[in-house]
Amino acid sequence: MKLFANLISYIFHPLFLPLYSIVFLMWCNPYYYSKLGSGLSNIILLNVIVNTILLPIIVLLGLQKSKVLDDFKLEKRKQRAIPFIAVLFFFFWTFIVFLKKDFFPIGLTPVMLGAVLCLAIAYVVNILYFKVSLHTIGAGAFVAIVLFASSTSLYALGSVLVLSIFLGGLIGFSRLALNAHSLREVNYGYILGFLAQFSAFIIL
Predict the structure, then answer these.
(1) CB of 137 within 8 A of CB of 13?
(2) Mean pLDDT of the chain
């Protein structure tokens, strides 16, 4: 069971959420995003991979090597502050790039704003209250993205919405099975992630 829970936790790691979300939006609006051409699409995806996955991982590795972190799992609440700030910087930078580049589709920008809001809220909750689950924050945010996409996609996304909710439940179950979070921390993650991403779509 723990092997399966760990596998789910790694596959749906919060750092992968922006990439998964942007690939999903490109998939469900093929005619709109096909106008970008493969070149620009690759630039967008490369930007996301480098800024939201590779650079944060490098920073986390550096923090672990310098003994600031025990491991990548960020199990200790007190060790989460510095990594959160570092990753938040990279997420915010990517959001600014999306916002300022005229050739970047405006429909993708709320995804990065949502990621910024999710992490900022998680940081505040972590400092002031408890260790909210980043995994379920990501799961809640993705459900909001699917709901938004269902209003603009050429495809019927009802089955995708059901699948995203199921996967969200599976992610939460995995975090509980690993004793990484309490039920309260998991449930608050769903709520905060959904509200943060929903707010991002309203703002932009």
Answers:
(1) no
(2) 89
